[in-house]
Amino acid sequence: MTDLVEPRPVSTEVDEKDLPPLRPPSADNGLAGVLRRRYLLKLLVRREVISRYQGSLLGLMWSYINPLSQFFIYYFIMGTIFRLHEGIPNFAIHIFSAIVIVHFFAETFGAGTRSIVSNRALVVKMAMPREMFPVATMLVSLYHVGPQLVILLVATTISGWTPDLYGMACLVVAILMIMILGTGLALLFSAANVFFRDVGSSIAIINNVIRFGVPMIYSYEMVATRFGRFEHYYLWNPIADAVLLFQRAFWTGSTDRPTVMPDNLLLWGIGMVGVSLVVLAIGQLVFSRLENKIPERL
Fold first, then answer.
1. Between 165-195 and 91-118, two packed helices, what is the crossing angle to 10 degrees?
2. For 141-191, what is each residue's pLDDT tens digit?
3. Domain tally for the chain?
4. Which of 53, 80, 100, 124 is the most buried (most CB within 10 A)?
């Protein structure tokens, strides 16, 4: 009879050098974590676009209809009844170029504020940076800017628009500013909306005030005439700067009549991009402080 050989025990010890370094659970959170999970961000954006138009007969056409309806309302009331168009050349281009950028901010701010509450099931169940939801709503809003830009480009081309390098730089700075500012405010207000639902209800009021705080239904020339040497305080409103930059890109080049714009407009815009980055940093800081309490409040 052969002797049985006792099997040698297998060591289950693992060398600590072979283990990955320990990191806190929050290490993959924040905006940096969102960028590292771009594939998930893409899925969220696609899901948001599909769900928004699910069951809709017109679908993406609403991206054209909503800003156009605002345009016709403002143009009829301000242009026909109050006859503001008599002092503003190409009043239609002036007002619609402002509507595009204001609508971009309003949609980013409003949908971003509601994004955490409206996606409560995913927020509670999935391990992912919760900043993903406000960022996704900003990208969906940016996606909707495309059809509006098509309308604007067609209208300005018919009006004899002449693009220039300075105007294109103004266009890029305006969109970048609203992307950063809208995301920063969405982070801040979406966290607050989890604890106080009144925050979400107040966004519509804030957006209504914003529409009258920018040169959309009136021109910057009126601001300069009314406030004189104090006109520069008006430019501390980053959304007003974004509107002026957008108008410089499209409206100014669509008319042969002289248009009044602030001096060093592009420099003001770059400065407001810096202010928007500060708002984004504050929004991220507040969001990260409240993030761990969000699931239990939902």
1. 30
2. 999 898 889 888 988 888 888 889 999 999 999 999 999 999 999 999 999
3. 1
4. 100
